[in-house]
Design goal:
Low-confidence stretches: none
CATH class of one domain: Mainly Alpha
Radius of gyration: 17 Å
Mean pLDDT: 88
Largest sheet: 6 strands, mixed
Number of helices: 8
Strand order of the largest sheet: 6-7-8-3-9-10
CATH superfamily of one domain: ABC transporter ATPase  like domain
Strand content: 15-25%
Distance between the termini: 32 Å
Shape: globular
CATH architecture of one domain: Up-down Bundle
């Protein structure tokens, strides 16, 4: 089976077979243990996400959404079950291999956008690309910002941008990495209604236009309504 490093290198390299799902979870449990407390965050979760899909993970606070996202991003490991990307198990990967997966295979959009406030929009995207190992990232960053309507704002510092603009910069940074999987953690949670719709319109068109899969973690039924498929969590288990 191919390694994560071989799957997420630049486009000219050999790619994974297209029939493999971008993301799979099979009977996944995540249990957090302390000296006196055991908390089951995920209970037997099954999930499959294909390229071209926008999937919403819906549920209230504390239902396991963020844990699911962390496992999908390779930021944490399942206690039982299997998490796979393009047929390769994340459970068996070393930490350097998981770092490669996060650098090449996943673009992450956080609720608070995770931008450097004193850097410009362009500098933020360039920095994200450099962290992902992209050489000569400036042109790619400029193209990504222009695609999301931010070409004229590229020289503005992040702290001078509106909330919706900041989230579009964060999405541009994730997409510019050309990752096949975009994970968005409550991307509209801190936005007003108008900016929420702007960001949702961007997320809706990503799968088809960038040949990727997008998984959005949310508690908002408005966001879920924009998705191709909704997976609802309750107490760590999939209820629909």
């Amino acid at each position: 089976m191919a390694t994560l490093e071989s799957l997420y290198r630049e486009p000219e390299a050999e790619q994974a077979p297209p029939e493999w799902p971008v993301l799979e979870m099979h009977d996944v449990f995540k249990i957090y243990r302390s000296a006196v407390v055991e908390t089951v965050a995920l209970r037997g979760v099954d999930l499959e996400v294909q390229k071209g899909q926008l999937v919403a993970i819906l549920g209230p606070s504390g239902c396991g959404k963020s844990t699911l996202l962390a496992l999908a991003a390779g930021l944490d490991r399942a206690s039982a079950g299997d998490v796979r990307s393009f047929g390769t198990s994340l459970i068996t990967q070393s930490e350097p291999e998981l770092a490669e997966y996060r650098a090449r295979g996943v673009g992450i959009v956080f609720q608070s956008n995770n931008l450097w406030p004193t850097l410009t929009a362009l500098e933020n995207v360039v920095a994200a690309l450099r962290l992902g190992g992209v050489e000569s990232p400036v042109k790619r960053a400029e193209d990504a910002l222009a695609e999301f309507g931010l070409g004229r704002r590229r020289g503005h510092r992040a702290m001078a941008l509106s909330g919706g603009e900041q989230q579009r910069v964060a999405i541009a940074a994730a997409v510019a990495r050309r990752a096949p999987l975009i994970l968005a953690d409550e991307p509209t949670g801190e936005l007003d209604a108008d900016n929420q719709q702007v960001v949702l319109s961007v997320l809706r068109r990503l799968p088809a236009e960038h040949d990727c899969a997008v998984v959005v973690v949310t508690h908002s039924k408005v966001v879920a309504g924009a998705a191709d498929r909704v997976v609802e969590l309750r107490d760590g288990a999939v209820v629909r």
